[in-house]
Amino acid sequence: MSVGPNRVLAAWLTLLIGFSALAGADTHPSQAPCQQAVAEGLPTSGCNRALTLHVTSIDFAEELNGRTPPPGRRWLTLGVRFENWMPSDLVFGLGYQEALLVASIERQLYLRVDDRLVVRPTLVKDTGLEGQFVLSRAGAQRHGEIAFVVPEKSLSQLSLHYYHDQYGPLAVPLLGEITQPQALRQAARSVDGHDLLALGVHEVGLHQEWLGRRAAEGMQWLVVDLRGQGEWHTPVDARALDVAAELDEKGSLRRVMEYIEAPGLLQVVVDGRHAYVRDSRLSSLEDDPALLPDAWTGGRAVFAIPEDAGQIDLVAYMPQFRATEISTEIRPALRFSLQEGKSIPVDDEPVAVIEDDPIRVTFHSLEPVDAFAAHAEEQGQLVLIEASMSNLSGVGGMMAVADRFRLQEPGGELVGVFQRGPAPLEEPFWLPADDEPRHFTLLYRLQAPSDELEIEYGGVSATESLALRVPH
Where is the signal peptide, in residue numbers (predicted)? Predict the structure, then answer.
């Protein structure tokens, strides 16, 4: 059950939102029309069978506890109150404790913004709320303030959602209507999923500049509107969800599913072999997105990719999800084709190959260069090695390469490891299963020109020394 604006207030909100759209951007974030509209409807609340959540105040700020938000965003602070509402039928009929645990606010309380974004909370210091707490009896309350990072632009929809492990979800509408997930999901250009979660791609764009930042030379910004929904279900007592259910009846509760380790696992793969991860400062999609069970939401994922990219795919690789009700099987990667194109061919004759079970390391080419990625030949010699790794097993894993290749002779140093672009390779990186190669470039600076490099490779099951000829 939720308490929202009445019809008169809803009509007034609509006028305010329309006026905001005509007027353009807010003249000052802390005096946003949406803040005034929300404040007029407060206090408001939502509840399930055991817990009530009240929202009592709203504020916007450019800074919170000395922290500034990423570009294009600002802080929104809500005053909230949690209240124990444990019913007697659960206490006396099913033996539930009257005390109620409000667990892990940072992982179970979310702000839904414009029917698109899901934002995790930041606890405001010294305001009465911790990460979790117990409401000891019916009627017990806890007050505090919670902050969220939201877009600077005028907002059209806001709602606060809390998901308990045992009771039904509750929603507190703050601004606008809450759109049903099925309508939003059907608007996606492509959807893929499994028993734990579903993801869908909406808009896709290529830009030279995004949120005031120009892409590096030879690169461009790929912006993907990515949304999803949790599909995970766990068993519960049906009476905890519905007062009309029989005491011995069992039910199923749809749960929030977090896409954990997503900063490294959500990738754009170019030409089947170059993988790029998000720029977290420019992306509104949360680092580890929380996929709500009753919403189709997400955010924009922003990637720097080469301007000459051919085939472009967005791939969500899956970790081993860990929970008592989840099987340990590895779920398949979710793949979305964003652009069809011809990939740049790879030389069929590699310089050398190392079989490091279950990893195959291939040296594709080696050449001296005058300059590369802002590094110029000054003294000695710059040498580029184009290499790749493939994982021949059925399980992907994180991999680092900088420490695996050691220059023995002649003297010199590894300047860096790069991807096509060129762009620095973020390590460790995800090396997929089933022989899906990942290419990278090693840049060495030699103390003196040489006709041959001796490199030692230290791997998973093999250590080898290679003598590689430097062409002239």
Answer: 1-25
Q: What is the pLDDT of residues 387-431, one digit of tens each?
A: 999 999 988 999 999 889 988 888 888 999 999 988 899 999 999
C-alpha angle 228-149-113 in degrees, rounded to nearest 5: 45
Give the pLDDT of residue 22: 28
Give all domains of the chain, ordered by start, each with its CATH number: 44-175 (2.60.40.1240), 181-339 (2.60.40), 352-469 (2.60.40.4170)
Q: Which residues of 362-400 are buried (b: 16+ CB within 10 A; e: fewer)?
A: bbbebebeeebbeeebeebbbbbbbbbbbbeeeebeebe
> Taking all residues of the chain, what is their mean pLDDT, rounded to a whole number?
87
3-state secondary structure the chain: CEECCCHHHHHHHHHHHHHHHHHCCCCCHHHCHHHHHHHHCCCEEEECCCEEEEEEEEEEECCECCECCCCCEEEEEEEEEEEECCCHHHHHHHCCCCCEEECCHHHHEEEEECCCEEECCEECCCCCCCCCEEECCCCCEEEEEEEEEEECCCCCCEEEEECCCCCCCEEEEEECCCCCHHHHHHCCCEEEECCCEEEEEEEEEEECEECCEECCCCEEEEEEEEEEEECCEEEEEHHHCCCCCCCCCEEEEECCEECCCHHHHEEEEECCCEEEEECCCCCCCCCCCEECCCCCEEEEEEEEEECCCCCEEEEECCCCCCCCCCCCCCCCCEEEEEECCCCCCCCCCCCEEEEECCEEEEEEEEEEECEECCEECCCCEEEEEEEEEEECCCCCEEECCCCCEEEEECCEEEEEEEECCCEECCCCEEECCCCCCEEEEEEEEECCCCCEEEEEEECCCCEEEEEEECCC
Q: What are the structure tokens assigned to 465, written together?
A: 């020394």
Reference 178, options 231, 111, 227; nearest CA is 111
Instruction: Work out the number of other CB atoms within 10 angstroms of the CB of residue 293.
Output: 18
d(CA 198, CA 263): 17
Cα–Cα distance for residue pair 370/384, rounded to 1 Å: 10
Instruction: Burial-class residue 21 by CB neighbours within 10 Å (0-12, 13-18, 19+).
Output: exposed
User: Where do we find the tokens 């809500």?
Assistant: 78
For residues 161 and 451, give the distance between their C-alpha atoms in angstroms, rounded to a whole number.
65
Given a cut of 50, whether residue 19 has pLDDT beyond it is: no
